[in-house]
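Amino Acid Chain and Its Fold in Token Form
===========================================
What this section holds: a protein sequence and its matching fold, both as plain text.
Structure line: whole-number tokens from a learned vocabulary of local backbone shapes, matched to residues.
Purpose: to set a sequence beside its fold so the mapping can be learned.
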Amino acid sequence: MAIVGAGGIADGAHMPAIRAQGGAASVVAVVDVDPARAAAFAERWDVPGVYDDVNQMLEAARPDLAIVCTPPVAHHEAIIACLDAGASVWCEKPPALSLAEYDAITAHERPGGPYVSFVFQHRFGSGARALREHIHTGRLGRPLVGVCHTLWYRDEAYFEVPWRGKWETEGGGPTMGHGIHQMDLMLSLLGDWTEVRAAAGTLAREVETEDVSMAIARFANGAMVSVVNSVLSPRETSYLRFDFTDATVELSHLYGYDNSHWTWTAAPHRVGAAPAELGAPAEDTASSHEAQFRALLTAVRAGERPEADGEDCRRVMTFITALYASASTGRPVTPDMLTPEHPFYPSMSGLPVRTAPDDLSEERVGV
């Protein structure tokens, strides 16, 4: 394995996830545009190969799998380089800056691999796994009403990092960079969406993008969901709720969950039914990079598509594109509208794509 981008997420999440696999994977190289940062990372984690260029690393180390932990603006180039060199990729969110970038990236995959998948670890906890199965089998009845709220707080200092809060380098605001985790979990549970009506605003932060967005989403199964993404909420929470004909299932957490964060409530006509009777799992696997990485390793070794890739991951990218398009135009957006000719296909802002200025290059922004 290789680590591309030796910043905080690689240190705090990915390396512990790798070490937790009991030797099933080893890191042979680290790449960072800051050689000193790469060297310090290599020393901390006992990584033998240190590079400041992705292509040089790929030629010398020839990894089976690369984990891309760069700022969003650098995902596209790094992923394609790895795929073209025959390395599978696991990349941090957001997957790309636009649907156009996403489709360009996945065009470099090949049958049997390598494939690119993305960090959406909330899908992989036992609570989400159980609920997904129950929705599939109809155990809880029909899905009717949902809530998907990411209410977080980021102060002005957070946006002093040069690439944050800018369309060309982050791809969007909290809709793209924060709420994407909860929205991906919602979509992985409820499936295909059919319409989005949205509003967005820049209410308190000095950013180009929004700092809050709200949407009403309709799904192919008939459900309707309220979606809120905010970085202006002092009491932070990530809250998802799904009302079925036979039960309500809720998840309230912040950056990760275990079974204790889920609530399973029977409908009145099933009053007295315990959570286990409704389908709450006995196994308690927390949502984590470790849980997703374990599943990813299994898929890579088998030459199979991992979860949270391809069309599976594209669903959340199209949803976010629709949210921004609807917020900008004041009109509902449906999936069939988001063709390559749509103004929001090449850019989440709907504006012409510009090359990032030199002072926002990866060398300046860090990883």
